Amino acid sequence: MLEKINLKAKIDRKMYKTQKEDLITRLGTLQRQAKSLGIPIMIIFEGWDAAGKGTLINELTVPLDPRSLIVYNGRRQLSDDEIKRPYLWRYWTKTPAKGQIVILDESYYKELINSKIDNNYKKQLMYQEANEFEKTLSDSGILIIKLFIHIGKKEQKKRFESLESHQETSWRVTKADWKQNKNYDEIIKKQDRALELTDNESAHWTVIEGNDHYFAIIKVMDTVARLIEEAVDQNKNTPEIELHSLITETDDPYRTPVLEGIDMTKTLDKEQYKSELKINQEKLKMLEYEIYRKRIPVVLGFEGWDAGGKGGAIKRLCENLDPRGYQVHPTAAPSAEDLAHNWLWRFWKNVPKNGHIAIFDRTWYGRVMVEPIEGFCTAADYNRAFSEINTFERQLTDGGAVVIKFWMNITKEEQEKRFKEREDNPYKQWKITNEDWRNREKWNQYTVAVDRMLLKTSTEKAPWVIVEGNDKLYARIKVIKSVIEAIEKKLNEK
Predict the structure, then answer these.
(1) Which residue range forms the structural domain that includes residue 92?
(2) pLDDT tens across 407-430, in order?
(3) By the 8 A CB rule, do 51 and 210 touch?
(4) How would you list the strands of the sheet with 101-105, edge to edge?
């Protein structure tokens, strides 16, 4: 790709001024239109050292309203939080909200090029995850613009020498810069390969001929304007979809009835429970220290019927752990900020650091249970969510995490009994609402959704554990034992 680029491309000063004036007006107008339509935009700048990325970003941002614009410097030193999480975490947390423009001055692309990982399989996996990241964002309506600023070897050397010749700018040229110039012919092959592997339908690369400063500015501004214009036109012409419930009781009559096959008679007597609880809580505490020492992150997700025992199971799971090593994330209805981002954004934010445990009380599975039943997502959103969830969880496990999801299962009769007990107990009345009774009326719809969810998203590395929850004591012990088993299995792999 790069070897075919004509670096002699130029534009004269008069034409530059005329075109730039027009583009300044055009970009300001397009930004306002994109904001009013709620189109999020992510612009990535990559390229050679001394290619002029900083100057080009400045020229692009001058016409834009800074209130809807954020520029992130990818060349700074990584924080402890970033180093100890999956490498995509630092980019997920910077994705734009609706109507916002985010500019990344260097991104995951540079990390892929500079990665010291020698294992070819792991490198390919990183490229795959970058493409999956862009597809997930693009599918949710984020416009991704990727610009690679290309200059020749001689031009790069000339710019380094110019920077070094002035006291004010000499500090900007490092040994690493000169090493890049010396190995230019070798590095350009890596750059080319990386561009090829990350050029996809969701986000194509545009190469900017950077030898001529004027030409580069105009091409950057024109490319951004053209792509925003296309996104605005497409958004205006997209008919509004009327949302409705996507799952009915008669959906998929030949489905595999997973929940029907669960033995709900399992119990545990109180004395055995006390004994097992003490033993297993102590064992889990020791494992917590071990995963911290070996920097293994753990992600636990809890789903289940209302009054299914999630809270009680989480409490017993945590009560003997070191509170510095875990965090419980209760998942409520999405906030306005959550809704302004891709739907997975709020879960990526809470991915644990290496060696820590994240416990989600309700999870990303609301996307394939609550939302399609209540009419909060489109059919396309729902159908796509299964693969997006599997990708999300696979990226966590590929990064070394233990991932387990628990479905706390109770019978419809047991749920009614617990609801009435809560209503009769003044200390537990806060736990029962009209919403709980309303959801109960949709039990059969939820059964269809849950059966489908369990089949489509239980994987070898991120399995569903169905917990027989009619007996709370049995359920709590099963949860703790399942976590212990999964962590011990990971430690043995290590």
Answers:
(1) 2-236
(2) 999 999 999 999 999 988 888 888
(3) yes
(4) 69-73, 101-105, 41-47, 143-150, 205-209
Say yes or no to pLDDT of 122 above 90.
Answer: no
- Per the DSSP assignment, residues forming a β-bridge with 105 are 45, 73
In terms of domains, do 214 and 346 share one?
no
Q: What is the CATH number of the domain that holds 24?
A: 3.40.50.300
Q: Is 443 part of any domain?
A: yes
Question: Is there a domain that residue 105 lies in?
Answer: yes
User: Closest Cα partner for 440 from 471, 407, 416?
Assistant: 416
Q: Are residues 38 and 163 in the same domain?
A: yes
Q: Please state the pTM of the whole predicted model.
A: 0.93
3-state secondary structure string across 239-287: CCCCCCCCCCCCCCCCCCCCHHHCCCCCCCCHHHHHHHHHHHHHHHHHH
- CA–CA gap between residue 476 and residue 408 (Å, rounded): 10
Residue 408, strand partner residues: 304, 467
Total of domains in the chain: 2
326 and 231 part of one domain: no
Specify if 232 maps to a domain.
yes
